[in-house]
Amino acid sequence: MKIKRILVSQPKPATPKSPYNDLADKNNLKIDFRPFIQVEGVSVKEFRKQKINILDLSAIIFTSRTAIDHFFRIAEELRITVPDSMKYFCISEATAYYLQKYIVYRKRKIFHSTGRFAELVEILNKHHEEKFLVPLSDIHKQEIPTLLSKNKLQFTKAILYRTVSSDLSDLKNVNYDVLVFFSPSGIKSLFQNFPDFKQNDTMIASFGPATAKAVKDAGLRLDIQAPMPQAPSMAMALEQFIKKNNKKK
To answer: In CATH, which of 3.40.718.10, 1.10.700.10, 3.40.190.10, 3.40.50.10090 is domain 5-36+166-246?
Structure first.
């Protein structure tokens, strides 16, 4: 089967200089983008049930921009003024700079790592006396609380947002040759939207080991996997598969 149509379960790239655009142009493909999951903030009522007093804590650990947005949303809805003395520890420099949306950056104590949580923990250990708040999604990497506990850091986990399935009912009669997934939640959304989904000739592509496992656990055939040594990105994995597959008669 020659591949002509691909559905990527992520938002459309913001820039036209996307590797997916190059892939489509080179191989005469139609590539559509549609997020299979979306983020929903928890309500103030739900947050209060967690019995967390933000003002009892002296530092916040941010692992994403989404966590920053929902922390300040909850603070605003609770009419809490975050004190100037609050310290911020961010997973990356880009995440740290995103704080400028909510605070006067140069007047705050802000620390960041280069993208690895284990590296961020090394920085946290230099501030062992702090009481940390960790805003997270209902689905999060277990590595985060595990490493904090292992290093005997004082922390409170706050679930401020959740991952939910998008409504994909308009795709019911649309057929794609390849479906591309980036998280186990995407696979879950597929079956929540289409409980009778049968793979048949549809190719499944997945990014990351957790997503690959979710594909197989769901009883689906995994045709394209990334990252791999020869294909570190999903676009590269798709291109290699398409070149090989579309040559076949």
So the answer is: 3.40.50.10090
